[in-house]
C-alpha cells in the first residue's frame, strides 16, 4: 500500500487517478573500495556536523505525451515502466539542527559526466543554514555513467526506457521519478532518510542541462502531480543558466520550436526563479520574456558572472590568455536563496532586479571599461577595481582549451591611471565601496555573512 500517493489531475474535470505509489529506497554502503560518485570530502562535512547518504530509489513511472494545444500540460499515458535512480543526500547529523528546507538538485549530466554545480556554489551556505541538499541522478546518460564508474555499486540503476523508438534523440528522464523522490522525502516511510526531519520547504533546482530538464518537468508533469493531501510535490523551483532548449518530453519526440510557449516557464502556482549569468544570456534570450515583476516568477541576470555560474582557475600557467573571471557569483545566489526562503516562510516578495542592458540588436551594452550595464549588480561590479569578461580565449587554439577558457571568462585589473580617474584615491574608493555593501545588504542583494567577507577583502585591497 502506498504511504504517500501521487495523483494525476487532468485539465478536464475528470476524477483524479493514482499514477504511482511512494517509491522504495535502499541505502548504499560506503566501504574502503566503494563510495559514491561525487562524494563530498568527509572531513569537510564532518566539520559542519553534516553526513552524506547515498540511496537507490525505485518505483514505477508513466510515460507522458503532449496532447492538444501548447498551453496544456502533458498527459500521462497508460504505459508504466520501472525505474531505479540514484539519490545523493547531505544533511545535518541531528534533525534538531535542520532548517526544514530541502533543496533537490537535478544533477547536471550535460557533458556525459555528472556535476553538482549548485552544491559547488551554494553548498557552504546550505550547511550554514542547516539545509538538506539532495542530488538526483535521473537521466539515462547519468545512470549509464554511474554504472561505468562502478558497475557493482550501481548495478540496480535503471532509467525509464524509451517508448519503442529506434533512434532516441536525447537521454531520457523519468518525470514521475522526480516527483516520487520528492514525495518520499515528505513521507512517513521508514525508508525516507528524512523521516525524523520536519520538511517545511521542498525546492527543486537545476543548472544548465538540468535546468532544461526541470523546465520540461514544470511545463508537463508538475502541474498534474499532487500529494495525497492535494498539495504540490515541490514548493518552489530554481532554474539557473537556463541557456538550452527545453528537454524532450520523450526520447522519441522532436525538439519543440523556439517560439513554442513550452520553451518558457509556465504560469504555475509555485514560485519559479530563473537565474542567468551574463555569459548565459546570449543563449537564453527567450527567457527574457519571463515577467520579472510577478511575485511568483522572477528572472535575474547576474552582471559580470561567467558561464554556468562556475569559476575555473586561470593564471599565467593556465591554457587561457587572461586570468579567469573571479566574480563572486555564489554571493548573488546566496541572496537569491535567502529571498526565496523568506518568500516561502512569510510571504515577503522577492525583489525584482533590472535586466542586462542591450541595444536594438540585442548586443550587450558595456561601460567605457568593459563592464556590463544593468542586471543584478554586486558591490565588486558597482564599485569595481576590475573589468569582468565572460569569453576567455585559449593560448593554443585547441577545442578543449577553448571550451575551458570560454567557461572561465576573463578579468583585467584597472591600472593606476584608471583607478585615480575613477576614485581619486584609495580612501575615496573604500568609502564608496563600503556604502555599496551596506546598500546591497539593505536591499537584500547581499547576505550579511558575504558582506563581512567583502569588507575584509576591501581592507587588504591593493593600494593604487
Please describe what this structure looks like.
- The protein is α/β, with parallel strands linked by helices and 464 residues long.
- The chain has one domain (6-31, 43-414): Alpha/Beta hydrolase fold, catalytic domain (Rossmann fold).
- Helices cover 26% and strands 20% of the residues.
- It has helices at 42-47, 117-129, 140-149, 175-186, 209-219, 329-346, 379-382, 399-408, 416-423, 426-442, 448-459; strands spanning 6-8, 17-20, 24-27, 50-65, 75-92, 101-106, 132-137, 201-207, 225-226, 236-240, 272-277, 297-302, 386-389, 410-413.
- The strands form three sheets. A nine-stranded mixed sheet has the order 3-4-5-7-6-8-10-11-12, with helices on both faces. A three-stranded antiparallel sheet has the order 2-1-9, covered by helices on one side. The protein has a two-stranded antiparallel ribbon with strand order 13-14.
- A hairpin with an 8-residue loop joins strand 1 (6-8) and strand 2 (17-20).
- Helix 10 (426-442) runs antiparallel to helix 11.
- The radius of gyration is 23 Å and the shape is globular.
- The N and C termini lie far apart (70 Å).
